[in-house]
Structures are given as C-alpha cells and as structure tokens.
Amino acid sequence: MDQALTIQQVAQATGLSTHTLRYYERCDLIAPIHRASNGHRRYSAQDIRWIQFLTKLRMTGMPIRQIQQYATLLRQHPDAVQERRALLEAHRQTVVQQLQELQENLTVIDWKIQHYKEIETKLSETPVQTSPQRTL
Fold first, then answer.
1. 135 is a domain residue
2. Are the C-beta atoms of 1 and 41 separated by less than 8 Å?
3. Domain region containing 14
4. Cα dihedral angle (90, 91, 95, 100), rounded to 10 degrees?
5. 3-state class (DSSP) for residue 100
6. 81 belongs to a structural domain
7. Domain HTH merR-type: where (predicted)?
8. Phi and psi at residue 102, to the nearest 5°
9. How far apart are CA 68 and CA 81, in angstroms?
10. How far apart are CA 62 and CA 94, in angstroms?
11. Residue 61 lies in a domain
C-alpha cells in the first residue's frame, strides 16, 4: 500500500470525526478498512477518495440507506454501472429541485432586504417620527 493513514489522520483530512468514520464502516458505507498488524485501521488513498465522495453525497442530503445501496452495488456488483448511474441521477434531480427551492427563497430574502433598504432611505430623508411603524 503506497499510503496508509491512521483514522486520526483521515478524520483530520476529511473533517469527519473518528466516531463517524467507525460508524460509516459499521453500517457498510465504507468497505472494511485494512488493518495493520497491531489491529489499527490503515486507510488507503482509494479509501480517502471514497470517503470524500461519500461526504459529498451526505452533504447533498442523500439518505444513508441510498448510499448503502450505492456502496453495495459498487462492491458486490462492480459491473452494475447503469444501476449506480440511475441512483446518482435520481439524487441529482432531488438536489436540483432543492437548489431551485433555495433560489426561490433567496429571491424572497433579497426582495425583503431591498425593501428594508428603501424604508431606511425614506426614514433618513424624513424627520424622526414619534411612533415608528413596524414592518415585517
């Protein structure tokens, strides 16, 4: 193995905790990690790449069960490319929909910010009122 990292090194490199890495291994999101003669985990560069990809899937909201399904297809059926692609395409569509919803929400927030700027401008141009109006 050209590069063998400890669990602490992988945690630091990926931003995941050692607890999370062990959990991911227990629930088969990560293939069993090679162990050194002392029993300590030793992660390969390939393991790191998979963990980084797995992290991207988690950050985009892919459920653990779906990732487990993807990982199982990858490990047990390496030729099942079409099935893995279909899983990723379905997840991509979900992410695109979430992005569209976020963009719509951001548009409303931007409108509200502009609305407050206009109110601030008007207030700065007029004398101070004794009972300011509340705005939402």
1. no
2. no
3. 5-121
4. 10
5. helix
6. yes
7. 4-73
8. -65, -40
9. 15
10. 9
11. yes
- Residue 46: Cβ-neighbour burial (10 angstroms; 0-12, 13-18, 19+): exposed
Q: What is the CATH number of the domain that holds 31?
A: 1.10.1660.10
Question: Is residue 136 situated within a structural domain?
Answer: no
DSSP character at residue 6: -
Q: Token pair 């653990």 is at which residue?
A: 64
Three-state SS for 8-69 is HHHHHHHCCCHHHHHHHHHCCCCCCCCECCCCCECECHHHHHHHHHHHHHHHCCCCHHHHHH
Reduced to 3 states, what is the DSSP secondary structure of residue 130?
coil
88 CB neighbour count, 10 Å cutoff? 14
Give residues with Cβ within 8 angstroms of 106, minimum separation 6: none
